[in-house]
Specification:
binds 5-amino-5-deoxy-1-O-phosphono-D-mannitol
Length: 610
């Protein structure tokens, strides 16, 4: 979603800001801009719709330079994709603002500010921040106090950075609902919405807490909590690789990340499983004592992470004897739900910053859950900091908007959680040893599965001119079918729906014809014969099928059915294995269609607004 970078230095910060924006491109955006306080005392701004490179070209053709500056990539919420709506927004050529989030009461603020004589030049909610701060400055406050007063009038979510032309030595930042991280340099300091943006200039970070307002100069960082009291926040040394943003020779980040899966799954398992079981305390200090009391699990997530939760429900109930509900965060947070006794709340998130998931966690913490665990990929993220327990998936930076390696490491984490909870709930020894053995075999199986790429490229050719598609799976493969459908629609823009194949005759069979490819995931498990009956139902109605099947599942290909063999694997890891061919299918279809694979239209990597 939107990205923020800011810097206060002695040197010219233009390159730092532009490099930071480039490193945030993966988050998704539609326009970009930069504002600088120039040494001649002027406030200058350059904005462009389109890619950051277009902004960089415009900056290169200008005289713009400055040692205090802010920059932004915008993902439109209020107001269309125009240069006038791109950030930074100004008030009276004095105040400059960049903002992530949504000011929900912007209409009433706008009316009040218009009455006071402010003229709006954009359709955005953000411009109300600029004018509100300006109004406070007019009353004689310094920038810090002006921002502290202004934020009291905002409802909604914001991560915002503000500069004042009259005071070029500082920026003031405020966080409520949208993450901000301060980067500490030597004689220079930085601010960003994501540490990735600042890795070329520092590895030392302070993650702001909800309600924090901070004043940043070259040499000082002063932070105040939501009550205005000065606070110290921990300085964290980042261990994220500086060049995690490189494509490593692959054409797209998504392809690189698909191929990284054997390695990152191996990392996720490292020192967490032994030859015979789970190592102690892998879910953090005190986790085992909490797990002893857990009688119910409530999982909350969005998108791909939600699909990981849906898969986990099958495992937790089948192997660990723990009852489990799974819900989309945006639904959970706005309905009254019953909290079961001894319930563990689990959030799942690649980014750890998804607004709905975070809001659901905060709500749940007040609702009587025994404890909260997050399964997350970003250390230091809001979900990690606000949950009682955090389990890191160790997938490394995921840049492609379409989530791939984050998903398979989430599933790997859930198999480990199944072992941990199962141990306390009478899990069968055979199930425990079966899962452990399957986990040990997982990285190699993933490598084997990636080798079937060629067949999938051919298949994608047949697929790319279709407008609709149906994905089918049963049992723990049903969420994998959902994930396959999400991947396809997300990056190839082909309409894709997923059904539990037992549901076919309750409606979707009416859609079947030779223009609607049907993708089936068919491991050799106890539901195979049922699935085969569903396949026959499709065949009898002239449907064209693409079946990803275990080589021992005995599917005979013919003109209505292409069979792509997937290496045999043990049941517990089958959902992880069958995810890979579906990721590759959507990748190659998107490649043929020529869509923007890594930054699909209208989407953002980290959804920090609701
Ligand atoms: O960072 P999160 O895992 O919380 O993100 C949740 C969804 O926004 C995300 O999984 C989204 O659905 C992906 N783009 C799917 O590929």
């Amino acid at each position: 979603m939107c990205g923020i970078v800011g810097a206060v230095a002695e040197r010219n910060v233009v390159e730092i800001l532009l490099e930071g924006l480039k490193r945030l491109e993966y988050r998704g955006y539609d326009s970009a801009g930069v504002a600088l306080l120039q040494s001649d005392g002027n406030l200058t701004r350059i904005r462009r719709t389109g890619k950051v490179q277009e902004l960089a070209d415009a900056v290169a053709n200008s005289e713009a330079l400055g040692s205090t500056g802010i920059a932004h990539t915008r993902w439109a919420t209020h107001g269309g994709v125009t240069e006038a709506n791109a950030h930074p927004h100004f008030s009276s050529e004095r105040v400059a603002v960049v903002h992530n989030g949504i000011i929900e009461n912007y209409v009433s603020l706008r009316n009040q500010l218009t009455e006071k004589g402010y003229r709006f030049t954009s359709d955005t909610d953000t411009e109300t921040i600029a004018h509100t701060v300006h109004e406070e400055l007019k009353s004689g406050k310094n920038l810090l106090n002006a921002v502290q007063s202004a934020v009291n009038t905002f409802h909604g979510a914001y991560g915002t950075v503000i500069m004042d032309k009259e005071d070029p030595s500082r920026v003031v930042v405020a966080r409520s609902g949208s993450p901000l991280v301060i980067g500490l340099g030597l004689g220079e300091n930085f601010i960003a919405s994501d540490q990735m943006a600042l890795l070329p200039v520092t590895r030392r970070f302070i993650f702001l807490e909800e309600g924090d307002v901070a004043e940043i100069t070259r040499r000082t960082v002063d932070i105040f909590d939501k009550h205005g009291a000065p606070v110290e926040r921990e300085v964290v040394e980042s261990n994220i690789e500086h060049d995690a943003g490189d494509k490593g020779g692959y054409r797209h980040y998504m392809l690189k990340e698909i191929h990284e899966q054997p390695t990152v799954v191996r990392n996720a398992l490292q020192q967490r499983i032994t030859e015979t079981g789970l190592a102690p305390d892998v879910f953090g200090e005190g986790a085992d004592a909490i797990f002893k009391q857990v009688k119910h699990v409530q999982i909350i997530a969005c998108g791909t992470s939600y699909h990981a939760g849906m898969t986990a429900r099958y495992w937790l109930e089948q192997y660990a004897n723990v009852s489990c509900n799974v819900e989309i965060a945006s639904e959970f947070r706005y309905r009254k739900s019953v909290v079961h006794p001894n319930s563990l709340l689990i959030t799942i998130s690649q980014s750890g910053e998804t607004a709905d998931t975070l809001a659901a966690l905060r709500l749940a913490k007040e609702s009587g859950y025994m404890s909260s665990l997050t399964i997350c990929n970003v250390p230091g993220s809001s979900l990690v900091r606000e949950s009682d327990l955090a389990f890191m998936t160790r997938a490394g930076a995921e840049i492609g908007v379409a989530s791939t390696k984050a998903f398979t490491t989430q599933l790997t984490a859930f198999l480990m959680l199944t072992l941990a909870l199962g141990k306390e709930n009478g899990m069968l020894e055979s199930d425990e040893s079966g899962i452990v053995a399957a986990l040990h075999s997982l990285p190699a199986k993933l490598e084997e599965t990636l080798a079937i790429t060629n067949g999938i490229e051919d298949l994608a050719e047949e697929f790319a001119d279709k407008n609709h598609s149906l994905f089918l799976g049963r049992g723990d493969q049903y969420p994998i079918a959902m994930e396959g459908a999400l991947k396809l629609k997300e990056i190839s823009y082909i309409h894709a729906e997923a059904y539990a194949s037992g549901e076919l005759k309750h409606g979707p069979l009416a859609l079947i014809d030779d223009e609607m490819p049907v993708i089936v995931v068919a491991p050799n498990n106890e539901l195979l014969e049922k699935l085969k009956s569903n396949v026959e139902e499709v065949r009898a109605r002239g449907g064209i099928m693409y079946v990803f099947a275990d080589k021992d599942a005995a599917f005979e290909g013919d003109e209505s059915m292409r069979v792509i063999n997937v290496p045999h694997c043990d049941s517990p890891i089958a959902p992880i294995i069958y995810t890979l061919p579906l990721q590759l299918l959507s990748y190659y279809v998107a490649l043929i269609k020529g869509t923007d694979v890594d930054q699909p239209r209208n989407l953002a990597k980290s959804v920090t607004v609701e």
